[in-house]
Amino acid sequence: MPRLRHGWISSLQSSPGNRRPQTLVLIAATLASLVAIFITPGMPASLLMLATLGGLSWLAYSEKRHFQSIQRAYNMAMLAAHDGFWEWNPISKKLHVGTRLLEILGYQEDFLPDTHAWLRLVHPDDIANYNAAVARHLKGESEYFYCEYRVMSSSGLYRWIASRGLAVRDRHDKAYQMVGSVTDITERRQHQEEMEFLAQHDVLTGLPNRLLFAEQLQEAIRHAKTENHRLAVLFIDLDRFKNINDTLGHRAGDQLLQLVAQRLRSEMPEGCELYRQGGDEFIVLINPIADAHVAVDTAILLKELITAPLSGGENDFFTSASIGISLFPEDAGDGESLLRHADTAMYEAKAAGGNAIRAHTPMMNQRVTFRMSLETRLRRALHEGQLDLHFQPQVDAHSGKLIGAEALIRWHDGEAQIPPDHFIPVAEECGLIIPIGEWVIERAIAQIAEWHHRFGEIPPIAINLSPRQFWRPSVSRFILGKLEQAGLPCSALEVEVTESVLLDADGGSIEELLQLRNAGIAIALDDFGTGYSSLSYLQRLPIGTLKIDRSFINNLILDDGSIGSEPLVRAIIAMAKSLSFRVIAEGVETLPQQRHLQALECDVIQGYLISRPLPAHEFAEKFLVDRSTSQAI
């Protein structure tokens, strides 16, 4: 098509080369006839003139046929390509359009005599761009005219067209004619707009996504700097969203996200724009704001909107949200930092138990920096062998006989020892708890195997399993496989889990624990009374031991003689006995605590009164070398 169009336009600019000699001969014959008639009038001269005029008539007819054939070929090509033809005089402004162009727009007759009539059809937003493209080509600044713009069709709707053309110029290079064609590109532009929309919007909720947020935040910051005003970013994370996916299914989770998006979008104050960051996270841009109180008040409103029950067909949803706030320019001067600080503040809100709002503070940055540093060092520690296991004995509360021990992880970072309560939460959050947990299993079983070889039968050693370790398939198979490789009986190992495993009581964790118990590994419920205790679940869990958390033991006897936690400890022990559970008291540090526990019929005690956690060789020397002289209290 481009070659045909260019060739046709070239034919308008110059006559075909094979007709030039004929034209010159006829012109010469015409001049000779005129001279002959003037000098020697008569029949011969008249006949010569008639012959010459006939030749000129034939040439004119031939040229007309040639032009018509070219025009027909061009029109057929335009029809085949679904293009429309147009011709325009830039001097008189007269316009002629072909029938195909009219068909594209749905018109029956040509009612477009000039430029002004055409411009009345062009979309107001596209007129400036269209005029600029025409002007550039008329001035010779562009090789050809090309413009994509919208034109009103007979239905009143706008259609996208791509118009192209060339100017015909005189010897002074002034354009006196433009010809070209038009292609209907409505479907292509609609598809392009749909793709652009999908690239900048979330498919599930229809909200602008984080890419569009980044663009609009950057523009908002630029404008805020110019106008010297503030703006705020709110980072919203739904609390316990995973529970909904796990219990009701991902379809219900998607429905909840849609309901939250609809409610927030319809109820948000003026000046707020809602975006979906991804997953169960949303972002709100408030632009502008008068002061920080506006951001806090908006966050409170959004939290209340999310907390209110959401009804969605078969399901009624009850959820809450953790919200972080970051302000420009107080907290950050660029979009990336502003969003990161809002995200940090949101995690502070979530760490406070959720359903909370936190505004960013510089202290949060220090905590995040420390956490990131700790995570990096912990990864290195795992690979460089800086982790170790210490063992704390568990003894019979009455006889003092050694009946077991708990393996506790320790981290020596150079000369410093990092407390477990500092690095274990970081490991849980970043996923390192999985490889660390596997290391603990392997190291504990290897140590048990060594002690079995040296001392013969020894009491079982307990290891702690994180709830996250149950998120991966078959932790039970991993443990049983390592015991088999070491040639150890399953009774050589015990497993301790916390009450947070109850959050997934209907999932795979219970099945994994059953696999361990059925194989002969005892299961203990650690830190009982501090987590998500549910008495109805105790009968479903395959446990044989309850470990009373040290916080209850610390308050068992108060210095002022008032009642401490003794009633709770008494109730826990009585309940455990009724369920045939063994009871271990953690954190026993004084003889009065031990005597109270003996009186309450506690089975086993563990704590500094017996021994601090010891390295493997010290534990063996003190408690395994000669168990017949095992220390009684």
Task: Label this structure with key terms.
633 residues; alpha/beta; 8-stranded mixed barrel; 5-stranded antiparallel beta sheet; 22 helices; 48% helix; disordered N terminus; disordered C terminus
Structure in words:
With 633 residues, the chain is an alpha/beta fold. 48% of the residues lie in helices and 21% in strands. Helix 9 packs across helix 10 (250-267) and helix 16 (475-486) packs parallel to helix 17. The chain is elongated. Residues 1-18, 76-81 and 628-633 have low confidence and may be disordered.
Q: So what's the overall shape?
A: elongated
Radius of gyration: 44 Å
How many β strands by DSSP? Answer: 22
Mean pLDDT: 83
State the end-to-end distance: 102 Å
Characterize the largest beta sheet: strand count, sense, and whether it forms a barrel.
8 strands, mixed, barrel
**Parts with pLDDT < 50 across at least 5 consecutive residues:** 1-18, 76-81, 628-633
**Taking strands numbered 1, 2, ... along the chain, how are they ordered across the largest sheet?**
13-14-16-17-18-19-20-21
In short:
The protein has 633 residues and is α/β, with parallel strands linked by helices.
Produce the secondary structure layout.
Elements: H1 2-13, H2 20-39, H3 43-80, E1 83-88, E2 95-97, H4 99-105, H5 115-119, H6 127-138, E3 145-152, E4 158-169, E5 175-184, H7 186-200, H8 210-227, E6 230-238, H9 241-248, H10 250-267, E7 272-278, E8 281-289, H11 292-307, E9 310-312, E10 315-317, E11 321-328, H12 335-351, E12 357-359, H13 362-384, E13 387-396, E14 402-413, E15 416-418, H14 420-430, H15 433-455, E16 461-464, H16 475-486, E17 493-498, H17 508-519, E18 522-528, H18 535-538, E19 545-548, H19 550-554, H20 566-578, E20 582-585, H21 591-599, E21 604-605, E22 614-615, H22 616-624
Parallel strand pairs: 11-12, 14-16, 16-17, 17-18, 18-19, 19-20, 20-21
Antiparallel strand pairs: 1-2, 1-5, 3-4, 4-5, 6-8, 6-11, 7-8, 9-10, 13-14, 13-21, 13-22, 14-15
